[in-house]
Amino acid sequence: MGMCSSAFPFLLRFYRRNRYICKRNHQLCMNLNRITFDPNVMGGKPCIRGMRVTVGTIVGLLATGRSNDEIIEAYPYLEMEDLRQALSYAAWRAEEVDIPVVFS
Q1: What is the pLDDT of residue 31?
Q2: N or C: which end of the chain has fewer CB within 10 A?
Q3: In what order do the strands lie in the sheet with 29-31?
Q4: For the chain, where are the E strands, in sequence order?
Q5: pLDDT at 65 (0 to 100)
Q6: Is there a single domain that holds both residue 41 and residue 76?
Q7: Are 38 and 85 in a shared domain?
């Protein structure tokens, strides 16, 4: 498993195992190593470092006008990089397009 797949360079891909976002021609490859998925934690929703804090919680707090410092104060076990990666993941998900694969 490489960072980005060259088999389908036109697809926006996310590899949960390597936690990379890949876009056409390797133009965008971000490491999202703090975003985790575990069916036993928050029902498999994307979480921050395996904790019971979801990406949706972070994005929701930011959307309601909370500052990064306020969030860190409310959740002292989070770091600024956690907030950045949560926002990056949410932005990617908002732009994601599912294209059905047809096998011949």
Answers
A1: 79
A2: C
A3: 13-15, 20-22, 29-31
A4: 13-15, 20-22, 29-31, 35-36, 47-48
A5: 96
A6: yes
A7: yes
pTM of the model: 0.67
**Per the structure, how many domains does the chain have?**
2
- Do 62 and 75 share a domain, yes or no? yes
Residues in contact with 55: Cβ distance below 8 Å, sequence separation at least 6, in sequence order: 35, 45, 46, 47, 48, 86, 89, 90
Domain, as residue range, for 52: 34-95
Residue 5: CA atoms inside 13 Å, Cβ hemisphere, count? 11
- CA 82 from centroid of its chain's CA atoms: 10
Identity (one letter) of the amino acid at 5? S
pLDDT at 12: 39
Residues belonging to the chain: 104
Residue 104 lies in a domain: no
User: Could you tell me if 38 and 6 lie in one domain?
Assistant: no
In a domain, 103, yes or no: no
